[in-house]
Structures are given as structure tokens and as C-alpha cells.
Amino acid sequence: ILGAEKLEYAGEPKFDGLSISLTYIDGVLEVGATRGDGSVGETVTHNVRTIRAIPLRLIGKYSGVIEVRGEIVLDHREFARVNAEREANGEPAFANPRNAAAGTIRQLDPKVAAARKLAFWPWGLGEASGVDVASQADLYRWLGAVGFRCHPLVRELSGIDEAIAYAEEIVAVRRDLPFDIDGAVIKVADWKTQERLGSTSHGPRWAIAYKFAAEQTTTELLNIAWTVGRTGAVTPLAELEPAQVSGVTITRATLHNLDDLLRKDVRVGDTVVIQRAGDVIPEVLGPMPDKNHAKRPIPEAPTHCPVCREALVRKEGEAVLRCVNRLCPAQTVQKIVHFASRSAMDIDGLGEKLVIRFLEEGLISDVAGIYRLPAYSEKLESMERLGAQSVANLLAQIEASKMRPLDRFLFGLGIRHVGSTGAYALAQHFKTIDAVRLATYEDLMAIRDVGPNTAGEIVEFFQDEENARLLDELIALGVAPEPVAGPTGGLFAGKTVVFTGKLENMTREEAQEIVRRNGGAAAGTVSPSTDLVVAGPGAGSKLDKAREAGVEIITEGDFLAMIAE
Question: Which one is catalytic: 6, 14, 291, 502?
Fold first, then answer.
């Protein structure tokens, strides 16, 4: 094989969108599916057909199967328009264009996708009957000839110096692009050379992704607010002088907990360094010390809940301050929002703003109140920014949620220490909500993913009179969680998998579901029982812990390749 300086390369932007696989049979688009591994995916053909950049029929005569792979993205202008429209309808805004693209392509109604100007940029082929291409350059020309449009930044490169210059160019133009990218991909152009180079367990030897470093900036820390979560956890939040990071205006950032706040030694009035962890979550890294830093007061932990004024407690061995008042309004809001979230009962449209409005109007007071909302349909329609169609959509979502799988229902209840993995283990083992309610500590300890603390919390939750009343109300209102049928074997049978960092081809929930469907358990933390860690960009302490423990670590690409095999 020639030296790197003499090889021909191809450069492509690393689009920050949703990977899609388009299957053409005899030249006609038949299937559009998320994740182009050819084995596991979500069929979204009805929405893919609405994207103008995707030809419904290839130009020319083709027989057999041709699979085109690429990325669906939403540009910044359309992202802003969609979010403004959602907020006007009382719906939660999308966090970023990638989420908006993913949310749009998964809509049941293709009219929604058609109304949003999604773009598609092709970058590869899967199965390709009758396609005569021998290099990346041939591929780009073929894509153009059959009706696709490659992005202007896709480039043929001669030698390693041009490849390096291309990566530097991508960094320079990143902020001028109308859509998000998170790096550049450099590929060896000739496909026979790609085949000779082969792949390792971590990815192909013939391609490399040049990822952007997390962008950092400095701004002034204006205040440290204390927020209350659904479990009563009271955590510090930095309120900042507005600053631009990765194209997003940041006004607030996490400070995690009291110990982390004191360790970083950030004080109100400091100039602090901020970044978006994994290009998503804003966080404060620390202060830029100046001559006045030592004169500023060290932040003090609150002694009472900032919302209900109940005295706070901090259990021995825990870093979190906690409000123990179960009637705390802030906890009520977060409990309802969590119950309605996508990972739980998946009631699309019932976000925090709407929950607060319903609480203020006296329409709901707890989770069970969600299922009483249909009785107030006329009042809902009369509320500002809620029309008849929005109300009808919300009520349909509420009705559909009554039959969600048991693991989602258990997760939605917000039992301490019971995440999505633990909820799935409980649902798979006990099958019904009644069986879970009757489970003893010993019954729970027999489950692999349930430890002593979790078992104790579960027993305490179901023995609590208020929780028992809530469950009885939910069941009386028609909530009937469906059993979860777990596989008896599969690729991950008997294994525990942890995901850390940013996944680029699927959501964290989708990846965990793949593990479960293939017989494994998807955990949220690295422990002695962890068998595999899938690490993406922005991976932090979990990755470090996995390395220390000698746990096998793979990339998302490796994970998808395992499934395809």
C-alpha cells in the first residue's frame, strides 16, 4: 500500500444529524429506516418520502437492491422556526437541531415532517446491485447522476497534506455553516485499498473522524441558584451572563452538587470557564482567578428548601441536599414531567411549562391528575396557546399512554435508585404491577440488577400509603401497563452494557433497548458486573472507571457492527 502522502483521500463534513438508510428496489424507494446497519432500525418511510432531497426513484435503470446511507439534518433557521411554533402551541422546545430532526422523522403524521424543511446529505452505500463504483470519488459522481446532491464541502483530496488542510478548513468554516457538524471525516478514496487496510475491533483503518474539541468560553457568574428535583434533591445552578458556546446562548449551567461547587471554588462575581459537555449539557469548569477572587464570599449551602421552606437534610455518605416534603410544589412539577417523559409514559407535548400551567389552574395536583384532564377538555381549549387540535393531540397521547410497557410505568413512578435498567429488570421478572407491589426484600434481591439499597427503596415505596393510593387511582383511571417479554438468549445474553458519551446514530434509550432485545442488561453506571462499555464523544468518569476496572470498551461503530453481524 502506498504511503499516506501519496494516497488519494475523500473529505466529508461529519454531519450532526440522524443517520438514515434508504433502500431502493429496482430503482424505487421502498424503505427508509433509522440506523443504516441493515439489521436493526425504525421504519420511517412515510416521513422520508416527504424530504425533497431524497429521490423517490433513481435516475436510470437499476434492478435489485441498492442501499444509500446518509444524514438527515435541520438547518439553524428552520430549527428556530420549529421551536417558535412549538412554544406558541405550549409544547417543549427541542434542545438542538439533531433532536429536532430525530423527533420530526419519527412523527406518525407525515404532514408534520413535510412542513419542516429537512435536508439529506448522502455519504455511503450498503448493498449496491449493479452500481459500478470503485472509489469515493466515483460514489459522489454516481450519487449526483441518480438524483442525490452531495454537500459542496465533500472533497477529493490528494495526499495527506491536503487531508490535513481540509480538516483545518472544516474547523474554520464550522460557525458559518447553516447546520451543525461536529468534525470532519477523512477516508482513503480507493475501495480496493480500503479493503486491503481492513478494520480493527474499534473501526476501519481506512477512515478517521476528526472531532472538534468541546468549545469553551468565559463569562461572569451572576448568581448561584438552588433548584429542586423530583426526588427532592436540591442542587446548585449557575446563572451566567449570556455567552455563546457551540452556536447556543448559555445563561445557566450545572454545578452538579455542593461538594463539586466547593471543589471548583467558584464564587458569585467570578469570571468562569464554561463548555457544553458532549456539545450538549452546559457546565462550569472552574473560575479564572483574579485579585478579587479571595475577597468574594464562599457559597453557602441552603438550610431550607428554596420553594417550600422545609428544612433540608443530607444523609451520611451522600453529596446531595434533599427536601423531604413530598408536597413541595417543585417536586410535584418534576414528578409529573418525569412521568410523562419519553423514557417513561411518553406523553408527547406534556412538558414542564404546560404542567406548571395546569397546576396553577388547579387542573392537576399529582400524576393521577393527568388522566383526569379529558374531563376538562373545554377549559383546556379555552386556555391561551391551546387550541382544539393541540388539546385533541394531547388527550390522544394521554389515552395511548395507558397501555405503555410495565418497565416504562415503573420508571415513571420515580422510585429512588430505579432507573430504566432496574425498571426493565423488575418488569421482566415480575410481569405485572401487582406482583411488583407484593414483592418482598428477598424477592427483589434475587434479581441481578437490584442491589440492597434499591431493594429497600422499592419496598419502602410500595408500602407507603400515599404511593399505594396513587397507584390505586391510576389503575382506576384505566392505566394498565403491559407485560414486558424478555428474550431468553441473544448477542448480549447475560451481559451488562453501559453507554457513556454522545451517541450519534441513535438515542441512549434506543441503544439500551437494543441491548435488552438481545438478552442483555443496560446499566447506567460502571460496576463490577459491567461487561461492556460503549463510549462516544464527551465520555467522562464512566470511561475512566471502565479503564481502571479493565472493562472492555468499544465505540458506537463497533456496537452497530456487532448487531449487524
Answer: 14
